[in-house]
Structures are given as C-alpha cells and as structure tokens.
Amino acid sequence: MSKERALIVTGGAGFIGSNIVNGLNEDGRSNIFIVDHLTEAKRKNLDGLLYRELYDAQDFLKLVRNNQLPESEAIFHMGARTDTAESDRSFMLRNNTLYSKELFEYCVRNDTRLIYASSAATYGDGGRGYNDQERNLQPLNVYGYSKYAFDEMVLNSLQRPLQWVGLKFFNVYGPNEYHKGNMASVVFRGFNQVMNDGYLRLFKSYRPEFSDGGQLRDFIYVKDVVKIALFFFHHPEQSGIYNVGTGKARTFLDLARAIFLALRREPKIVFIDMPEAIRENYQYSTEADTTNLRGAGYTDKFFDIEVGVKDYVQRYLLPRSPASNSP
C-alpha cells in the first residue's frame, strides 16, 4: 500500500480552515499539517481534530522557501488577513498576495495541488456582475484587491500546479468563527445581540430602491463551503476559479428572522445608522453566479438560510452561550 501523502491546511485553526480539517478527518484523512498564527480563541477550534503537526505561519514560509515541507498531495490555502477595513496596501499585499504567490510557486515545483481562498470582495460594487469568469474587476477595499491580484497572477501564469482552484467565498457563516470579532458573520453577531440585548441591529438603507434591511447577500453555510472544497479535492481534473455561494441572494431581514425563528422568539429588529466611513463603498446586493461551479459537476443542494441558521444556532451557538437559558 502506498504511503498517504500529507495535506497542508493554512489558516487551519481559523474559521473555514478548521472546518476543512474536520471535513478531511470525516473523509478519513489525518496526515494533516496545520499552519496558523495561534491565539487562545483559535486554539479552541482545534479541539477534537486529528492532525500531525502545527506550524506557525512565518516558520512555515521558511520551510516553503527552503523546500523542506513534507511530501504533500495538496495545500488548502485558507490563511489570509481578512480585515476589509485594513487600509495598509503593502501590508495586505505582503500577507495575502505575495505569501500566496510563494505557495503557488512551491506547488508548481513540487507537483502539489493548490486549493485556495479567494473572495467575493474581488467583485467590488458588483457593477460588472458576479460571474467568476469576469477578469476586469474593481475591488472596493485593499483586502479585495489583494485577493484579486493573486487571482490575476494565477490566471496569467505560464506554469501552474497539477490542480489549481480558487474559491471565491461569498458571505460564509457557521461554527468556529467565534474569534473573528467584528469580521464574524451577521448570524454570530446577531445571535449575541439577541441573547444580550433582546433585539438585533441592522443597518438602515441609504438607497431608495432598498428598504431598511432589504440589502441582499448570498449567505452560505460553512458546511456547504467544506463540501465544495472537498469536491474539488476529489476531482483533481478540475481547475479554475469558482464562486462559492448559493446563487440565491437573501435579505438581511430574512437572515434576522431566521435567527429569531431558531431561537423561537418573536423578531425584534432595530435599524441603526450605517457608519459614514463605509456608506460610499457599501455593497447593497451580492449573488454568486454558480454556472461555473455546476458546470464542474457540483450538484449538491445548498442549505437554505432558515435551515443553516437553525443548525448553527441550536447545535453550536446556544450550547456555548452563557446567556442561554436552554437546558
């Protein structure tokens, strides 16, 4: 029997990365090397997961440069700086674009497959739509630009890994995002608002065609994200950049009502002013075009937000909430 080659998951103690490690474990894989910059909160995401070793992100980069990594079948590159409010362009390019470039070149040299995190933030205001084949994009923030720059580098490269897959994540929610603070999903933050204050806060709309709470997002449960990542892992013949969303936009009001429904409470929603700093670049509607994903052969049905939010709230958030009165 041939020796099982290693799998590497960068950002493996983070939100999506730790869920991918769990998915690989359920798939029977444990020869996994996790890369992350650990905090105490992120360390808890590793509880119960099976993996071989844990690397600090900068120590790992040294091993990449010296070609000293264990023989690897694939790298799931989920690690990134994801703060959409970050304004330091050189910092973001160094940590997202250039770090990813070194991993890409390592994969080319070592016949290693690469499945990496891109972002719907690359689409900017959506003026050119949300088709993952569109190249001429204008991201609204430095984070989005850092992801777009790497996507373009991959697409323009003359040499590529055996498999290369960029996953453009839309609005992901689900377990293990507890450490993300203001960058956590509206589901997580809204749940805590309801448990602590009894009501949920949403931004007012500043465009007449959208009612308060009528702003639209493509919300996708992290369990669907993992299934898509593993689909591409099991289909090494597929390469490209793919939207990872449900293809069905829902309103923030829909999401808020789903939280109250999961908590078996009557909705109580308060609309607040949107900070002036984000009003100009605020996205009012996002919806993934999933044509390319479906064309690659992915056929699974996505969680509706009512079902996904109920699973997240009742199985994960309520049991760990000090404000919960549930048994």
Features:
327 residues, Rossmann fold, UDP-galactose 4-epimerase, domain 1, 7-stranded parallel beta sheet, two-stranded parallel ribbon, 13 strands, 38% helix, 17% strand
What is the element layout, followed by pairings?
Layout: E1 6-10, H1 15-26, E2 32-35, H2 40-43, E3 53-55, H3 57-65, E4 72-77, H4 89-110, E5 113-119, H5 142-156, E6 164-169, E7 171-173, H6 186-197, E8 200-203, E9 216-217, E10 219-221, H7 222-233, E11 240-244, E12 250-251, H8 252-263, E13 269-272, H9 276-279, H10 291-295, H11 305-320
Parallel strand pairs: 1-2, 1-4, 2-3, 4-5, 5-6, 6-11, 7-10, 8-13
Antiparallel strand pairs: 9-12
Helix pairs in contact: 1-7, 4-5, 6-8, 8-11
Q: How would you describe the overall organization of this protein?
A:
- The chain is an alpha/beta fold and 327 residues long.
- The chain has 2 domains: 6-171 and 221-244, NAD(P)-binding Rossmann-like Domain (Rossmann fold); 173-218 and 248-287 and 303-320, UDP-galactose 4-epimerase, domain 1 (Alpha-Beta Complex), CATH 3.90.25.
- The chain has helices spanning 15-26, 40-43, 57-65, 89-110, 142-156, 186-197, 222-233, 252-263, 276-279, 291-295, 305-320; strands at 6-10, 32-35, 53-55, 72-77, 113-119, 164-169, 171-173, 200-203, 216-217, 219-221, 240-244, 250-251, 269-272.
- The strands form 4 sheets. A 7-stranded parallel sheet has the order 3-2-1-4-5-6-11, sandwiched between helices. The protein has a two-stranded parallel ribbon with strand order 7-10. Strands 8-13 form a two-stranded parallel ribbon.
- Helix 1 (15-26) links the parallel strand 1 and strand 2.
- Helix 4 runs parallel beside helix 5.
- The longest helix has 22 residues, at 89-110.
- The termini are far apart.
